[in-house]
Design a protein that fits this description.
The chain has helices at 2-29, 34-39, 45-55, 61-73, 87-122, 127-141, 144-158, 170-200, 203-210, 215-252, 258-267, 271-299. The protein is an all-alpha fold.
Length: 306
Amino acid sequence: MTTFIIRRLLQLIPVLLGVTILVFSLMHLTPGNPAVIMAGESAPQATVEAIEQRLGLNDPLHVQYFNFLGNALQLDFGTSIRDNIPVFSHIQPRFLITLELTIYSMIFAIVLGLLAGIVSAVRQYTFSDVAIMVVALFGLSMPNFWLGLMLIQWFSINLGWLSPTGWGDPDQLVLPVIALGTAGAAIIARMTRSSMLDVISQDYIRTARAKGVKERVVIFRHALKNAMIPVVTVIGLQFGYFLAGSVLTESVFAINGLGRLIIDAILQRDFPIVQGAVLVVAVSFVVVNLVVDISYRFLNKRVDLN
């Protein structure tokens, strides 16, 4: 296990380097001069040149990249063009909010998706199976921003039950979590159903039933555990998608998370914040995939990690 983890960590190095190169390149290919934005359109050329010199924008691109990489390793993403505050000070509190939203949405998606998938697999071809899969198809097809707007219309404006905006109070958590987690729950339900059907048809499940083992024990102890590997893969991917997909959800519900920070920074052409925030999301995605790979061994001892 230790050898596998070390090998996977070493394999992450080129991936993360590729991410930093991509983020750095995209920002430099975007039209606009950060020095002009900081100084103002009417600033004299001498002022603009002084800012370019201070930011190192006159250096060759490879020098700028290695400076960016070295600073990023120390969690130094530069300072915001808009207010000259360190980028990390902007990202840290916003990332914690987005992470909280993602975790709550993931819990909602896992619980709902697993239960729906198990029921659908156990009652294959019944009305319950068809109904769950139809609802899952609708959940998968609905964009989270549209679902969010509909939830606000129904439960906030029409019924007045829940708060339509903000984050922190219990009544502010429900709608964003449902909006962000519904599509993930649908994907998990479909994968759970498919994986459970494959496992339920195995000989050892029929043997357990023939021995008189309770159906609840057969489903949850024997079948579900062995059906979880593909489901865990989907869960790991969905966690990354939730981090990235929170941009629209946070905009709809006016949540001051990382996604909304990225949108605001793009509109204000605040390149350092965009670079830092995108890099944090990308690294989080890679780390989650590493955790998923490691979890395979705990779910099934027969999985070869070598």
